[in-house]
Each structure stands twice: as C-alpha cells, then as structure tokens.
Amino acid sequence: MMRISVRNGIPFTSFFGSVPTIIRPYSSNHSNKSIDFENVKCLNDAITLFHQMVRRNPLPHVVSFSKLFKTTLNMKHYSDVISLFQEMRILGIPIDGYILCSVINSYCLMHRADYGFSVLSIYLKNGIPFNDVTFTTLIRGFFAENKVKDAVELFKKLAREKICEPNEVMYGTVMNGLSKRGHTEKTLSLLRLMEQGNTKPNIVIYNIAIDAFCKDGNLDAAINLLDEMKRKGIPPSIVTYGSLIDGFCKLGHWEKVKTFFSEMVNLNIYPNVHTFSIVIDGLCKEGKVKDAEEVMNHMIEKGVDPDIITYNTIMNGYCLCGQLDRARRIFGIMIDKCIEPDIISYNILINGHCKKKKLTEAMQLFQEISQKGLKPDVVTYNILLQGLFEVGRIGFAKKFFDEMLSTGPLPNLSTHNTLLNGYFKHGIVEEAMSLFNKLERKTEDTDIAFYNVVINGLCKNGKLDEAHTIFQKLSFIGLLPSVRTYTIMINGFCLEGLFDEAKDVLRKMEANGCFPDNVTYNVIVQGFLRCSKISEMTTFMKEMTGRGFSFDATTAELLVNVLRENPSVLDMIPELHSKNKK
Prior knowledge:
With 582 residues, this protein is an all-alpha fold. The chain is built from 32 helices and 2 strands. It has a two-stranded antiparallel sheet. Keywords: Repeat.
C-alpha cells in the first residue's frame, strides 16, 4: 500500500509492498534508427509518432520513449508530456527514471511542484531508484513557485535522512534559489556546509555566492570570497568577473572596474559581449551614454560584436537623457548591422518619445511594430496609455485600451494602475471608482500598489473620507499598508489641514512596525509650512534630522518662500538660526 505523510508542509510518499502489473515487453534493440525523430517538428508530429510506437510489437526500447518525451518537453508542451505518460500507464508500457523525471519537470514548469512530488510514489512502486536529478528538479520547481521553505525543507530531508547525496548541481540550485530571493547569508552558509562534506564547492558554487554579495552591494565580502577561492586553487571565470564588474558599476567605482578588466586579460580571460554590456549599462544608468557608446566602439575594435542587448541599452540611455535623435541613430546602426529590432527595442523608443510628449511619433513606431512582423506586448500598451494620459488625450486612451482588450495582450496590474492614475489625474473619479470596484472583486488583480493609486487619487480629488475608508479596510482584506500607503494618507490629511489626524496616522504607522521615511517627514513638514504652523514644523524638523533625514527640494522651496515673506520666522527655528550665525 501507499502512505503519504506530511512533514513541515511537504508531502512525502512512501511505498510498502508491490502491486503486480501486466507490462508489455520492450525490444532488446537499443537503436533508434528505425524511428524518425528528425521529422518531429510540432506537437502533432510527436503524438503521431507516439501512437505509431505503441502499436509496435515488440515495443521500441524505453530509450526511444525517453527521447520522445524529451523532444515534447523541449517544445514546451508540458501538459501533453503528462497526457502521454498517463496513456503509457494505461497501456501497460514500462517506464524508466528519465520518463518519470520528464513528468516531474513538466509539472514543475506548470508551477505544480506538488503534483510533481506525487510522482515519487511511482518510482517506489516500480522499483526505480531516486537520483539527484529527480530531487533537483523538484527543488527548482518549489523555488519557481517561490515556495522557499518547501525547497529548503526538502533539501534538508534528503541530506538528513540520506535519501540522496546532494551533488554540486543540487547545492547550486538551492543556493541560486536562495540568493535570487535575497537570502545571501543562507547562501554563504550552504557553501560552508559543502566544505564539511564530500561535495566540495567548485567555481559555479563560488560564483553564486559572489554574485549574491555583489547584488547586495557588499563588494568587500565578494572580494574576500574571490581571494578565498584563489587560495584554494580555484581560478575565477568570466562569470566571476562579470558579477564583480556589475557590482562596482552599480556603485560607480570605475577605477575598480578597470582593475578587474586588466586582471581578466592578464589571466587570459577576455571580456565577452555580456561583460562589455554590463559596463555599458552601468554608464548609461549614470547618464554617461557617450562614454557607453565609446565602450561599444572599443569592444568592436577588440573583435567583440555588440548584440541586441548592447544596442537596446545604449538606446535606452539616450532616451532617458531625452536625446531621441541619438537613440534613433543607434536604432539605425543596429539595423545596418543586420540585427533585427525586437519588441524591447520598440518599447524603448516609444517610451522615449512618450516622455518627451511626442505621441504622434510614438504611435507611428507602434504601427511599425506589426509591419515588422512583431507583436506589441503589455509593456508597449502600458507605455502608450501612460503617454496618452500625460498629454490629456483621454478619449484616445480609452479607445486604445478597448483595442488592447479586443486584439492585444491581456491587461496586467500595471495596465489597470495606469488607467486609474490617468482617470484620477484628470478628475474622472466616477469612472476610476467604477474600474476600481470591478477589479477589487477579482482579488488576484490587486495588491498594495493598486490600493495606493486609488487612495492617492481620492485624496488628490478631495475625497478624503472615501480614501480613509479604503485605507482602514486594508488590514481586513489581508493587505499590510506600505510606507507609501501611510505617507499618502498623511499627505491627504495635511492637504485638508487635519494635522491631528495626520499625526495619528504617523504614530499608528510606527506602532505597526512600519517606519516613516524621508518622504513621509517631508510631506508633514510641507503641510505645516503651507499653513504657517512653524512651531509644529520645528518639532517635526528635530525628529526628522534626529533620524538622519533632510529636506527635499519642495520643502526647501516652501521654507525659503515663508522666510522671504516673514524673516522673523528664522528666529523660531533654532537649527537654522544657529547655522545662519555660523
């Protein structure tokens, strides 16, 4: 019989005894020469071949079935892999570990790792041993569904009960899953655990840990690991240097970037297109797009051809700087180099034109997408919708959204937030609330950012009571207000001169473990300044500076205006008065 037990929320199947099964014999010939896998180009081909194979007597060898499963899986027809497997079971065709692993992988790729887990009982029933690939696939599936606890618990169970000896790939899968979700210290702990066992960390393992520290901005820890692996005789790879270069680019430490480039070349590790693209991206994000283009020209001189990611990065850099002509020039160079623009290329250019409020040119680019055989994605529609609202073309935005519903991709949460923002911005509150009520009924279409848009829109349109009602019900629907949520509500009260209510929200915010940030304090101080409540403003200014926050440009401008109209106010603000004397 089978028994399924649950430990720590993870189902685990154990099997006792055996069930007699009538099975059909395989051919003893392992060759697949008589089976034409080359002509399997689509799902129908795979299904047709499967039915031809099961009618043979004797059956083709299990390796042939495994190969067919692999082909179907590679075509991303995951549910059909499971259907073929179920048909094999009904027909009494024997299976092997590779086929079972394909089924588990299919479930995991469909984000149903729990169903994949249930396949383990079939291994036991058929006397097929588990292996590291089986469990690595499941662990990867749990991480894909963000079930970090289940993934870690499964890994611990395997090691603790010696069900399967984790190898480098399994360790790497767990470490990668943890690091991608910000669990850097746990990632490092696993590396240390490996050092104590039979499976020692290799370059791949070190690269995962180094990349995690680089993503965290902890470059000192990353370099310490680099030095450690060098002492152990593990030479760094291009991936190692890519992570370090990316980390230092994000911090703007360009001298360090040059140092690592030189170190790479000295070790006969030559930068590839990905390495150069990291530097180009870093320069673009700092607004140094001309320098980024020079790096691209340098890589071409070194015999490294830019790819579409490189060109898109530079185009985006120019668009962010408002230099649309230069962005279009890069677009043209890319086409001249026989690199076809993708939808990301068009989205970058469309976004650039929308930011400059050049909607006619943006719509021309949108029309060009289909002419080039591409399809606009949800990002394309979201960019244009926002652009249309920005220039006040409300009617056109509504028609464009209707077009999206009829012929385009399905709207996502960002689409709905863009619509709500647009409606509220132009005072179309009734239509905004109608959409809000419709979407709120579909809980999967809402998150705290969605509610922030609505609460903010209502506050800006003088509907403070309605905004506060929605704010108060957040905890009842299982959503925790964010710092932005509280700040929006505080700002709403300040705009209406209700400072006691604003201070009440601030204190409740802290009591709930959500601490105010620089924006929160600036919002409160601005409210006091607008109403010339200098004494209250001074109190909050002290609290603000005590927490390491400072005035932003809007607050500073308001304060200057107040001082210009009434210079004696300076005497009421000790901090500013003492600084002025110095």
